[in-house]
Design brief:
With about 400 residues, the chain is an alpha/beta fold. It contains 17 helices and 11 strands. It has helices at about 20-30, 60-65, 80-90, 105, 110-115, 140-150, 170-190, 200-210, 210-220, 255-265, 280-285, 285-295, 300-310, 320-325, 330-335, 375-380, 385-390, and strands at about 10-15, 35-40, 70-75, 95, 120-125, 195-200, 235-240, 245-250, 315-320, 335-340, 345-350. The strands form 3 sheets. It has a 6-stranded parallel sheet, with helices on both faces. Strands 7-8-9 form a 3-stranded antiparallel sheet, with helices on one face. Strand 10 and strand 11 (about 345-350) form a beta hairpin. Helix 1 crosses helix 7 and helix 7 (about 170-190) packs across helix 8 (about 200-210).
Length: about 400
Amino acid sequence: MISAPLPLDGITVVAVEQAVAAPFATRQLADLGARVIKIERPDGGDFARGYDTAAAGLASHFVWANRGKESLAVDLKDPRGLAVVRRLVAEADVFVQNLAQGAAARLGLDAATLCAAHPRLVAVDISGYGAGGPYADKRAYDMLVQCEAGLVSVTGTPEQPVKAGMPAADIAAAMYAFSGVLAALLRRATTGRGGPVEISMLEALVEWMGHPLHHTMHGGTPPARTGLAHAVISPYDAYPTADGARVLLSVQNDREWRRLAEFVLERPELGSDPAYATNAERTARRTATDALVAEALGKLTADEALDRLERAGIACARLRDVAEVAEHPQLAARARWREADTPVGPLRTLLPPITMPGTEPVLGPVPALGEHTEALLRAVGKSDAEIAALRRDGVVA
C-alpha cells in the first residue's frame, strides 16, 4: 500500500484548553498529523488531569482527549508567561481556547484580537452559550448544557428524564470546532486568510436535537421519553433473553413485521392480523406487541435470538455494557485497537474513526504536565538564565 502523508502534517496548533470540548477537538487535529501545543497552568495543569485515577493512575478523560500533544505549563497571568504564548501563537496556524467567558479577551487571546494581529491564523473560541446574549456568562458544564438544550427532556423513561451517559455537549462542540478548523484552513489555502471561528456548546447540541426539535416546532407535540423504545415505531425496544442478556430489535415497516411474525415469533397469522398488521396499530397496542416479542425471545439465548433475527432480515443488536464494547468482535476484526504511551506506560486506545487508506494516524504520547516546557521555551529564544528565573518565580513548571 502506498503511504500518503497525513493531511495536517506541518500544521501547528496552540491550545489554551481544559476539560473536554477544546482538548477533544485538538486531539482530532493531532491524530491527523498536526503539532498541538497544550498550554496548562503550572499549578496542576488542565483540571481534567484530576477527574479520576481510573486509567492506571491517570485521569480517564485526560488520557482520552490529550494524546499526541506537547504540554507547556505556564502562568498566563504573568506578563512573561503570556509573552511566551504570544510568541508561539505568532508562529502557529491554529489557536483554540475554551477558557471561561471573557477570560481570553482579557488576555488578548480571543479569536477576534488574534486574527486581527495574525491574518493567516485560524482562531477558535469555544464557549458554553456564545459571546453574547443573556446566557453568555453562565457556567456551562456538560450536564447543564444537556438540560438547556433539551436533550435530557427526550432521554430516559416516561417517569424519569436522564442525561446522556457521556459528555454529549462537550463532544458536539469539539466536533464542530474540529470541522470548523478544517473548513477555515481550506479557505486559507485559497484566500491566504484564516479568521475567527466561534463554537457554542448550546448551539452545537441543539443542532443535534434536530429530529425532536423539528418534530415539536412543526408538529406541535414534543416526542415522549420511551427508554429504549421508539416513540412512533413498534416493535422497537430491547427484550430479555433466556440467558439474562437483552437484545434490541427494530421493525421498520409492515413487511418486516410479517417476517418477524413468521420466522422469529413463529406465529405467521400475526402478520395479517388487523390488530398488528400496521405500525399504527402495533404502536397503539405497544404493550401487547412488546409482550408477544418478549415471550418469543425469552425462550432463546441472546445468540439464538440474534441468529434468528438476522436470518429473518430484522435489524437487531446485542445490548452491551462498556466492558463488552472493549472486546467487541467487530472492532477486533477491523484491528481498531492500538497502544498510546503515557507517563505510566502504554495504554490501549482506539483508532480515530476517520480512516484514510495509506495513512496511519498519529497516536502520540499523553504528556506529563510541563513535559515540553523547557524545549518550547528554548524554541522561542529563552536562555538558560531566563528559564531558570521563570521556574524560580513559578511562571512555568
